[in-house]
Amino acid sequence: MERWEVPDVVQPVPHFEGETLPWEDRPSWMPNDNISCAHLVCEPDGTARLYMDQRSRCNPAGLGLDAMKLHKQFSKGRLDSGWTRRRDGLAWTGITTHVIGEKFGIGLPPPVV
């Protein structure tokens, strides 16, 4: 994944209604991978946090739309195998691009147009 210098400030992600946080602030139990643009964390109370890797070259608007779709899946209890569920009710998943998914052999749903 192509990366560049990390900006000093995390910008809100368009279309995402939760809190956007820097990659470095993600919980210690969350992996530091080079595949994800962001990790979405959903709490049992419905709140959502997006830990964005600002070094990745992901489209922020697309990222926000994907994060909201995933948050809706969580809210409806429709979690697929891409989610990690914790005993405390929290769940999280990574978000990446189709190009990176193909490169690393990750099956992703078709892009939404």
Question: Overview of this structure, please?
Answer:
There is one protein chain. The chain has one domain. A five-stranded mixed β-sheet has the order 1-3-2-5-4, with helices on one face. The radius of gyration is 13 Å and the shape is globular. By secondary structure, the chain is α+β, with helices and mostly antiparallel strands. The mean pLDDT is 81. Helix content is 19%, strand content 19%.
TL;DR?
The chain is built from two helices and five strands; from the N terminus they run βββαββα. It is α+β, with helices and mostly antiparallel strands. The chain has one domain.
Number of domains: 1
Separate helix tally: 2
**Main structural class:** alpha+beta
Q: How many strand elements?
A: 5
Residue windows where pLDDT falls under 50 for at least 5 positions: none
Distance between the termini: 23 Å
Estimate the strand proportion. 15-25%
Report mean pLDDT, rounded to a whole number.
81
Rg is 13 Å
Biggest sheet character: 5 strands, mixed
Helix/strand order, N-terminal first? EEEHEEH
Largest sheet, spatial ordering of strands: 1-3-2-5-4
Shape: globular
The helicity comes to 10-25%
Provide the descriptors you would attach to this structure in a database record.
alpha+beta; globular; five-stranded mixed β-sheet; 2 helices; 113 residues; 19% helix
